[in-house]
Amino acid sequence: MTCVLQISDPHFGTEQPRVMSALLRLAREQQPEVILLSGDITQRARRAQFAAAQDFVTQLPAPVLAVPGNHDIPLFNLFARAFNPYGNYRRAFGNELEPVYESAGLLVLCLNTSRPSRHKDGAVNKAQIERVAARLGQARPEQLRMVMQHHPVRAREQSDLTNLLIGHEEAVPRWVDAGLDLLVGGHIHLPYVWPLHGRHGDSGRSGWTAQAGTALSTRVRGSIPNSVNLIRHTCEQGQHSCQVERWDYKAEEDLFIVSHTDTLAISRKVEPVNKKE
User: Where is the Calcineurin-like phosphoesterase domain (predicted)?
Assistant: First the structure.
């Protein structure tokens, strides 16, 4: 079984030490193959906040793939925002803003959807869309094909429509047709799983998106507690089984507990990448 832990929006600078300790225990107990850190790693992109995040990551028991969120670009330091927006991020997490992870049963493609020219909105451009589609089309049938970015592509609440990734209308159906199984993101601190469709709607191929809540921050959304996602996947004789487990932090017990599980239907009906409408 492949196990992936998704951590999002920890907002170091507002992290809670007890929650952080509980999350480290969960990670060590579950022993994921890889850990995904889907943006807003810091609250204000300060060097000390990235240092705290880096220290946390070094305690995790698996490789970590990270992408920046809008909070990981300086807000008040206008010179840094204009000329070196990812300086502190790169100091902590390396120069690669769009890492890739691949194993026998898993392919994870990461996208940087943050934009220094925007305050909070994210965007995807044509080159990113086509690069991801091409790589999805090269994946092996037994692999779970994932994309990680910070900004959401589907809204469950009306108020989140303005938070959707700019360019999602083109990107999502392109990626689903190319073979996307699961897109994971954060940004809105609201965990949910939602279906995605290709260019032919319900008659074509489908995929999924899984949003994660804030893992560590005091900046929770309403009554929703700190949470993370655990993604479990197996493929036996061509048959895929995939679950997304939402784990919520329970202050009374001081630990993360499974609160909900979604079982995802995984299709291997893939449209040719170069197909024209």
Answer: 4-190
Cα 14 off chain centre by: 20
Cα–Cα dist 174/180, whole Å: 9
pTM for this entry? 0.94
Q: 3-state class of 183 per DSSP?
A: strand
CB 206 within 8 A of CB 198: yes
Residue 22, C-beta contacts closer than 8 angstroms, at least 6 positions apart: 249, 254, 255, 256
With CA atoms as reference, report the closest residue to 198 among 182, 180, 174: 174
Query: What is the predicted pLDDT for the residue at 276?
Result: 46
Residue 271 to residue 197: CA distance in whole angstroms: 12
Cα distance between residue 192 and residue 158, in whole Å: 14
Kindly provide the b/e burial profile for residues 236-246, where b requires at least 16 CB atoms within 10 angstroms of the residue's own CB. eeeebebebbb
| Chain centroid offset of residue 35 CA | 10
Across the 277 residues of the chain, what is the mean pLDDT of every consecutive 10-residue run? 97 98 98 98 97 98 98 85 91 96 98 91 97 97 97 95 97 97 98 94 85 97 96 94 98 97 89 55
Could you name the CATH architecture of 2-264?
4-Layer Sandwich (3.60)
What's residue 76's pLDDT?
79
pLDDT score recorded for residue 273: 59
For the chain, the structural domain boundaries read 2-264
| Beta strands per DSSP E along the chain | 2-7, 34-38, 64-67, 100-103, 106-110, 144-148, 182-185, 192-197, 206-211, 227-236, 239-250, 255-264
Contact call for residues 196 and 155 (beta carbons, < 8 A) = no
> For residue 42, which amino acid is it?
T
Encoded amino acid at 172, one letter: V
